[in-house]
Amino acid sequence: MSANKGSQSVQGRREELEPLVSHRKDNWRWWITFAPCLYIFIHYYFQDVNAYTTNAINLLSSIYMLIYPFAIQFTFKYFEDYPISDRGSGLRRGILIGAILNAAAGCIRWLGAIASPFGYFILFLGQTIAALAQVFMLPIPPQLAVAWFPKDEINIATSIAVSANNLGIGVGCALTPLMVQQSTSERDIPNLLLIQVQFTDFLVFITHTKKFIMCLSVLGLIWISFKKSPPYWRHMMIGMNSAEQSIKLWKQKEFIYMIGAYGIIMGGQCAIITLLAQILIPPFRLVMNEKYIGVLGAMMLLGGSIASISVGYYLDKTLKYRKSCTLLALFSALTSLGLSVSIEASSLAGVVITCIGFGFASYAIAPAIFQFASELFYPISEIIPTGYLFTGGNIGGVILVALMGWSEDRDNQFSMRWPMNCLTMAMFASVYMMYQVKGTLKRTAQATLHTSSR
């Protein structure tokens, strides 16, 4: 397929990507809302800064990572096509469930804008429902790409959908510090949560007809976009249910290495972006505030989005999954080390460069490793290895955020020295694990065989 035809195909299939991208951006923007202005939210809800209140606010992000591993296994059956003849019905069903849960979560979060522990409880309930919604949204891109795009556009389509996460987190990092100030937090925080509702939810706008119709239209667009039968559904496994496919997947040694590597890498990115204020504000308190943290976090995510799409384009041309994933894992480890060294040296420029570099590598590896897994373990449905990889990443995130957050040494200027050193060692271990993953690209081989036999 020529570049021109490929461009036309991506353009022609954008109606399948746009609704999913929109909802993934909203969901992940909510995940990171509280981290950039950690101490402002602590004062707003608890009026006292200590280890318990600090980690209570961090839990608003960690709940995403905590819910996922327990819920993912139960969602696979919703993505199965039944009846079998209705191809694509499972994909449509899963996306709709995620979108509806996301809408309900936004309304409940807004009701939690009360400056008290009770308000925190309501907010936490909304975050929990949003976390449940993302269980349905996260594993979709690889299967969406395989079902709706030709083989030479699968990686770029996956990268665009996965980049919605990065863009959502980046918007969240930048928006919160711009909107929330300590002196006006009693007005700013309710306004922030209301604005976030307006991006996605329709229930709160029943009296506002235009916005109500607009948000209903988004859900309608999802239904219409995925009502058609996917043109490339021949790549999908037929005849095995999700439980049988899961058992087959867990017998693969390469998958164990892969989930270990990605668990550390995604866990590291979750930990750094969640704890960025704790990592950087104490050693740079004279030159850095919440607004700086938000902008830096947004830059990390923007760099990751650009890198993700670039890597997707490269992989469509070369199919060099193993080389790309190993190099990105190595670069993630080196930039994690560089961040610690820069903080020790009090180099603000070094901190900025290494943070952006870490975002570049750690976020770009996601679509690459998802499609690498889909290739190695074909004909298992793409939803299943992607879902489990996210499970490993979320478990890694919960563990690292908790351990790093609780082991902060407030008596030292670089209070996160020991946690950052441990994270760096783990990141280098992930490079070794990623290097062990090898095998035949089975899906590409099958597609080539299918083409040559026609």
Automatic annotation (TrEMBL):
Subcellular localization, as worded in the UniProt entry: Membrane
Broad class of the protein's primary localization: membrane
Any one of the GO BP annotations: heme export
InterPro entries, per the entry: FLVCR1-2_SLC49-like, MFS, MFS_trans_sf
GO molecular function: heme binding; heme transmembrane transporter activity
Keywords: Membrane, Transmembrane, Transmembrane helix
Membrane disposition: Multi-pass membrane protein
Transmembrane segments: 28-46, 58-79, 91-111, 118-140, 202-226, 255-281, 293-315, 327-343, 349-374, 386-406, 418-435
A Gene Ontology term for the protein's cellular component: membrane
Pfam families per record: MFS_1
SUPFAM superfamilies in alphabetical order: MFS general substrate transporter
Protein name per its UniProtKB record: Major facilitator superfamily (MFS) profile domain-containing protein
Species whose genome carries this gene: Rhizopus delemar (strain RA 99-880 / ATCC MYA-4621 / FGSC 9543 / NRRL 43880)
